[in-house]
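Design a sequence for this backbone.
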């Protein structure tokens, strides 16, 4: 990876600006003739979120600037990338299906204090801010005895799945909006999700910087964020069935899949430890 010369940098910037404007103009034209609806736009973004990381992984694997050793480290990185997709698929629903559930089926009283349902949206961020220094202190105290990065990521995925499985309990046996669950169910779900986010994102970003091929160091970090885009694209499709199935089925199936895939990453730990050197 090399810095661009000033002239090349200006050309790259103009290409990005021009491409963005051309895309906006095309979208406006298609919307004007009635072809580009919101549903189709979401579908296009989902397709782009799938194609972009696939293409970039192909570029990195086939690039002559990537050595055999670096290519070997990209293989475990794919596992971490997919783990991030699974977790963030759950995480992004904290502000969609979970907020919808909280607004229609959750009490808005804790210890006698009443609050608007919109405050639930702040719970996840508050837990992450509170838990991040605590988790960091634990890792510092454990030193070399702390879990491998892949296990931290796997635990994050499992916690994300458990945050959805937890919602099966208060929603089981109920339909529609005719029931109310205690606020602690939503709070507990966000607590698990917040802890999972702290474990996964910090370890994932650290591993990205260490596993990245020298010629693609910055792009590999950007590729990690494409896992968020892919997760968002997938959940944009899956949430369409939220109203078509029962709440226990929706949260149970999605949460169960996340837990199983997290356990798969745990099972792959021996191989990941061997192939992720120098990540510890």
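Sequence:
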């Amino acid at each position: 990876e090399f810095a661009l010369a000033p002239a090349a940098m200006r050309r790259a910037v103009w290409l990005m600006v021009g491409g963005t404007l051309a895309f906006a103009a095309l979208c406006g034209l298609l919307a004007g003739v009635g072809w580009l609806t919101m549903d189709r736009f979401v579908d296009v973004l989902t397709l782009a979120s799938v194609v972009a990381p696939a293409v970039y992984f192909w570029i990195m694997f086939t690039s002559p600037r990537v050595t055999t050793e670096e290519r070997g480290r990209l293989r475990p990185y794919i596992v971490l990338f997919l783990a991030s997709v699974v977790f963030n698929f759950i995480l992004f629903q904290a502000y969609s299906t979970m907020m919808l559930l909280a607004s229609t089926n959750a009490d808005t009283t804790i210890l006698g204090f009443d609050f608007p349902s919109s405050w639930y949206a702040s719970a996840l961020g508050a837990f992450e801010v509170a838990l991040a220094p605590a988790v960091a202190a634990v890792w510092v105290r454990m030193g070399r005895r702390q879990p491998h990065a892949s296990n931290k990521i796997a635990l994050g995925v499992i916690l994300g799945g458990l945050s959805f499985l937890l919602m099966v309990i208060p929603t089981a046996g109920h339909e529609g909006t005719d029931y109310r669950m205690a606020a602690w169910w939503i709070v507990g779900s966000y607590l698990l999700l917040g802890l999972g986010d702290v474990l996964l994102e910090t370890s994932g970003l650290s591993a990205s910087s260490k596993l990245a091929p020298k010629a693609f160091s910055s792009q590999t970090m950007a590729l990690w964020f494409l896992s968020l885009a892919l997760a968002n694209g997938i959940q944009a499709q899956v949430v369409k069935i939220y109203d078509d199935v029962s709440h226990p089925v929706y949260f149970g199936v999605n949460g169960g899949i996340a837990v199983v895939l997290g356990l798969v990453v745990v099972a792959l730990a021996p191989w990941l430890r061997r192939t992720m050197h120098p990540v510890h």
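The beta strands are 109-110, 113-114.
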